[in-house]
UniProtKB/TrEMBL annotation:
Protein name: DUF1501 domain-containing protein
Lineage: Bacteria, Pseudomonadati, Planctomycetota, Planctomycetia, Isosphaerales
Entry-linked InterPro entries: Alkaline_phosphatase_core_sf (IPR017850), DUF1501 (IPR010869), TAT_signal (IPR006311)
Matching PANTHER family: BLL7424 PROTEIN (PTHR43737), DUF1501 DOMAIN-CONTAINING PROTEIN (PTHR43737:SF1)
Domain of life: Bacteria
PROSITE patterns: TAT
SUPFAM superfamilies, per database record: Alkaline phosphatase-like
Pfam families associated with the record: DUF1501
Organism this protein belongs to: Isosphaera pallida (strain ATCC 43644 / DSM 9630 / IS1B)
Amino acid sequence: MLRLSGRPIDSFCDRHSRRHFLKIGALGLGGLALPEVFRAQAASVNPPRLPSGGLGHKAVIMIYLPGGPSHQDMYDLKMDAPIEIRGEFKPIPTNVPGIEICEHLPRLAKMMDKFAIIRSLYGGVDQHASDMCLSGWPIGPGGNQSGRPSLGSAVSRIQGPVDPTVPPFVGLTIKTGHAPYSNPGQPGFLGPAHAAFRPDGESMANMRLRGITLDQLRDRRALLTSFDQFRRERDFDARMESVDVATRKAFDVLTSSKLVEAFDLDREPAAVRDRYGRGGPEPAFGEDAGPHWMDQFLLARRLVEAGVRCVTLSFGSWDRHHSNFTRLPAQLDRFDQGITALVQDLHDRGLDQDVTVIAWGEFGRTPRINKDAGRDHWPQVASALLAGGGLRTGQVIGSTNRLGEVPKDRPVHFQEVFATLYNRLGIDVGSVTVEDPSGRPRYLLDHLNPIRELI
């Protein structure tokens, strides 16, 4: 946090003391103060970047579905399997001939040409954590993500910020009782300077920045004037003379109208917000996972437009050991609304070539329905949904066997998906390396080939 110490002195007309005013912006990145982050980021090297369309840079929106969504109840229904495998949902046709998906995803079905489904995803482990979905690495001996950086952190290190007042990596994941669901993507050996920039608190209300309104914060000139007045009234404290470039840059971030206004969803027309849906930060079904907070889909779009390269968020509670067929319809409806509104919005705004969207969970669910009308953990196979990024959409990649147990055709490893996401950002994982603390160059992934069908 950028903090200028001093006794509270005269209040502003809105009754905020100058000391309070200058403590705004307690937005944390792994425990480092912003000036420290910018000193570390100054060492980042920006490689050549892909030409961009309307956005001006490439970006990824990563939607984590905590708990492991049921592949055979969303994108891979097995109508020829026995009833104890098949379940209660029916498939519906999509606008791409030959592709069928769950009846509770009707909006997605109508715009399947803008999406790609992977039905044969493998390489997951039986861990309730976001690590695999945000980095391509499970929790291992090295801790979270096996000590490796998440995609957002790697992009922060390799490409740096698009705009010096906008962080390259933002994590919207809120705190959950089961902490591994709350990982927004860790920096691993890259260190806290490349951690996700996170709103301080559990709801967007805290983006009002400790009592300072958005209108106050937008008026940068008034804020800087107050800053100068503070310096004068403190008898020109010598410490102010030592403020370095990194600290001044941190001050610019905290007073950046681009960043603050990106978080101000009230700037969007009501019709746009209604198209996405609203929701809130409460955990889905009161369970220990993510919220049904469709606002975050819209917020992610606003953040990438402001200059963020990677946004992560979590959505829903998908660990359906029981009540699978009574709870999924409501959750699928909300997901269907949020994801299709986001992807259509990107197309409408001319951003579909620049912004890649992925939605997936840590594993699939058991083919056999259990005694509680649920499905249990099944890391043998999972599914993923992708859109945007100039990908070849309107297709299904891979298949599973008759009972949905294992990949049958075209198995796709989690890390192949990450190689594809990095490719869309202009990063060749076959040649780009990052240094670990010992100075050793490390590849970002073990599986280095992007998915050929998509690019």
